[in-house]
TrEMBL record:
<dbReference type="Pfam" id="PF21352">
    <property type="entry name" value="Zn_ribbon_Thio2"/>
</dbReference>
<dbReference type="GO" id="GO:0005737">
    <property type="term" value="C:cytoplasm"/>
</dbReference>
<dbReference type="GO" id="GO:0046872">
    <property type="term" value="F:metal ion binding"/>
</dbReference>
<dbReference type="InterPro" id="IPR017937">
    <property type="entry name" value="Thioredoxin_CS"/>
</dbReference>
<dbReference type="GO" id="GO:0015035">
    <property type="term" value="F:protein-disulfide reductase activity"/>
</dbReference>
<dbReference type="Pfam" id="PF00085">
    <property type="entry name" value="Thioredoxin"/>
</dbReference>
<protein>
    <recommendedName>
        <fullName>Thioredoxin</fullName>
    </recommendedName>
</protein>
<keyword id="KW-0249">Electron transport</keyword>
<keyword id="KW-0479">Metal-binding</keyword>
<dbReference type="InterPro" id="IPR005746">
    <property type="entry name" value="Thioredoxin"/>
</dbReference>
<dbReference type="InterPro" id="IPR013766">
    <property type="entry name" value="Thioredoxin_domain"/>
</dbReference>
<dbReference type="InterPro" id="IPR036249">
    <property type="entry name" value="Thioredoxin-like_sf"/>
</dbReference>
<feature type="domain" description="Thioredoxin">
    <location>
        <begin position="35"/>
        <end position="146"/>
    </location>
</feature>
<keyword id="KW-0676">Redox-active center</keyword>
<keyword id="KW-0813">Transport</keyword>
<keyword id="KW-1015">Disulfide bond</keyword>
<comment type="similarity">
    <text>Belongs to the thioredoxin family.</text>
</comment>
């Protein structure tokens, strides 16, 4: 899982912030004051262990790309997913989960084909696209959510 190292402006302590928790207003481990974090314009990599908590606690809508590293269409849309995470920064959180190493979440959401894109708002799944959709269709969904 990717992490950010952020220095607390109050006490100077370095804090490791997982990218999957950067939107949760992290606090310094030493002084307890809130650490200002600029969200990163990269898709958040999720796993079985943190998926449900991440979705439930997200203050923004979330689009999750269920993918497999060996899937051709998944590789084809990966640059688009990264581009969308930059374009929708602060409006919609773009996340990814590798179904081959996180089968529990994939089974929970009955993912039978990849790529599958699931859309969550207020902790609940509101839409799903199976396959690699065109950019315009994804933007339309994201604009409707954010």
């Amino acid at each position: 899982m990717n992490s950010l190292i952020i220095t607390c402006p109050s006490c100077g302590t370095k804090n490791r912030i997982p990218t999957s928790k950067q939107h949760l207003s992290p606090k310094c481990g030493k002084c307890g004051k809130q650490i200002p974090v600029s969200p990163q314009a990269i898709p958040v990599e999720l796993g079985d262990a943190d998926f449900q908590t991440f979705i439930a606690k997200s203050s923004l809508p979330v689009m999750v790309d269920f993918y497999s590293p060996t899937c051709g269409p998944c590789k084809a849309i990966a640059p688009l997913i990264t581009k969308l995470s930059k374009d929708y920064l602060g409006k919609v959180i773009i996340a990814k989960i590798d179904t081959s190493s996180n089968p529990g979440t994939a089974m929970h959401y009955k993912i039978r084909g990849v790529p599958s894109l699931l859309f969550f708002k207020n902790g609940r799944m509101v839409d799903q696209i199976v396959g690699a959709p065109p950019e315009a269709q994804l933007r339309q969904k994201l604009n409707a959510m954010g």
